[in-house]
Write a structure and sequence with these properties.
- It is built from 8 helices and 2 strands, in the order H-H-H-H-E-E-H-H-H-H.
- With about 210 residues, the chain is mostly helical.
- A two-stranded antiparallel ribbon has the order 1-2.
- Helix 2 packs antiparallel against helix 6 and helix 7 packs antiparallel against helix 8.
- The longest helix has 24 residues.
- It starts with 9 loop residues before the first helix and ends in a 10-residue tail after the last helix.
């Protein structure tokens, strides 16, 4: 699989469609009568590939629909927005936890979001300032790891290990949240994935649930 940062264009979408189609074909041919594997791949590959980076978050906030929705829900005359963010390039680390500390920003951030959104064409290029952060590198690695995992599951899929393949395919369900919260969930999810994959390769019965 391509290891370069995703540009989320037609080629990126093609990677998604190709793997989902391969999972569907393998399930039909190698585990006839069983379902769940292809659906899981479709759902969780999408979840991993469609992660919200800084450009996407900026686009959502800069969309006039966001401000319209807020004004519909609260008194527009007294509206003052405050954004609590931990910018990856600027946030300081908490001395106790080591986690990034959130900073408060006023409504002027809407202009910043609009500016960042305009530069989303930099996503995946060498000029992308956010693409070098640990979190973005991890997001891209998760996509590649999942694609490689599904490739292996497709090759080895059979009726007697189908349940394990489904369990492995839904592991990304456990990777929830953002920032340091997501990293904690990722550690637990990878541990469960390793245990299930060992069983899948050995042909044993599942010993744990893939998602809680």
């Amino acid at each position: 699989m391509n290891s370069s940062p995703p540009t989320k264009n037609a080629a990126y979408a093609g990677r998604y469609r190709g793997l989902v189609a391969a999972a569907r074909a393998a399930e039909a041919a190698q585990a006839p009568g069983k379902t769940g594997f292809a659906e899981a791949v479709a759902r969780y590959l999408f979840k991993l590939m469609a992660y919200k980076d800084e450009y996407e978050v900026a686009r959502l906030y800069a969309d006039p629909a966001f401000l319209k929705q807020v004004r519909n829900e609260v008194d527009g005359d007294n509206l003052r927005l405050t954004f609590h963010l931990a910018p990856p390039l600027f946030a300081r680390r908490d001395k106790t936890t080591g986690e990034p500390r959130k900073m408060s920003f006023g409504p002027w951030m809407l202009n910043v979001f609009a500016l960042i959104a305009k530069f989303r064409f930099l996503r995946g290029t060498a000029l992308d300032p956010f693409g070098y952060t640990a979190e973005r590198r991890t997001e891209r690695r998760l996509v590649r790891d999942y694609e490689q995992l599904v490739d292996e599951l497709i090759v080895r899929l059979a009726s007697d290990n189908h349940h394990l393949a489904v369990g492995l395919a839904v592991i990304p369900e456990k990777i929830r949240g953002f920032g340091h919260v997501k990293m904690r969930h990722l550690t637990a999810a990878k541990a469960d994935e390793a245990a299930l994959l060992e069983q899948f390769r050995a042909g044993g019965a599942p010993l744990l649930k893939a998602a809680e």
